[in-house]
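Subject: Lipid-A-disaccharide synthase structure
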Amino acid sequence: MSSSAPLSAASGAVPASPHPRSGAPLIALIAGEDSGDQLGADLVAALRARHPQARFVGIGGARMQARGFESWYDIRELSLFGLAEVVAHLPRLLRLRRELVARLVAAKPDVVVGIDAPDFNLGVEQRLRRAGLRTVHYVSPSVWAWRENRAEKIGRSAARVLCLFPMEPPIYARHGVDARFVGHPLADRFPLVSDRAAAREALGLPQDAPVLAVLPGSRSSELARLGGPFLAAAKKVAAALPGLRVAIPAANARMHARLQALLAGWPADLAPPLLLDGRAHEAMQAADVVLLASGTATLEAMLAKRPMVVGYRVSPVSYRIARALRMLRTDVYALPNILARACGLGERALLAPELMQDDCTAGKLAGATLALFRDSERRGHIVAAFEQLHRALRADLSGSAADAAAAAIGELMEGGHAQA
């Protein structure tokens, strides 16, 4: 994002609220990237169902604005990735934060909801809470994975934390923080029973062939580390399983071009991979087994009820630092495995085999993938466990995660000002 993108508010005095306050609630939301914009759009719709006359202001993207949200700043102002990029834009981000806090304090909304983006939102929330405003943080940082003591700090920023995973509120409770499990939005977007046949028909894949979906990450840095071993593993699996079809979703045009280059040496005697523009969920649902990078995609594969093999590598320096400082609280990495333990489905064999760092080699990835293809009983056990975990990610089977979040926010709004 260019640093020349203008702020919607002037850089000098804080502008006054353009509409006078009435008896209708004023609800502020702050979303910092595309995923937050989607969460925010669903939340605006759910809150409007509870408060039809409410006015929604703050920072949001096109999806939120389509729901009637009034964005005071361009959401791209917060859509930064990586330490170097954040440092380069730090003076502008600090100025934006000062202006946003001052504007919200002047507007006195009934509640302020920071949606994810903890590096920016928690600082804003803390300042607003000190000023006497009610604050909510929607999407807990991964306190279950590393630095649990962050929960106490988050509690100083947010009067209430809305959690996507059921194991998170007990962690906050240990630190005296009000946290509510509202369910994971992705769990609303997948059916409890996945339709493999329909997905294969949509992608033009044969119904009777074994299918492997390969997802080596959605970022260029991930593809640089994982593309080679993942695609080499796929070749090994294809050579061992006659008729195997391989489906590879590309997150965007740049990733499509890079994957196409990596596939240039695909053996002529094997069925050519199906390289897709997006359509990751369909590729997962069409597959018998998924080979993928650790991250949110593992949760999506779990919700698609597909057995998976998970691999990942970080830079050797980052890995050594994390280990030396004991930053990680867990010895498992894939979300399905973490959830299985939290929900009492833990077992000696992980639901999703994990091959991390030095173990993330083509040979080991291929071996674990072939083992799943060849063990139908194991695949059936995994699918049954994933169905249980899918239900566990729904706070209310009769409503959506956004509905549950709106109820928790509405309860706070009706309970008076939260104390800092």
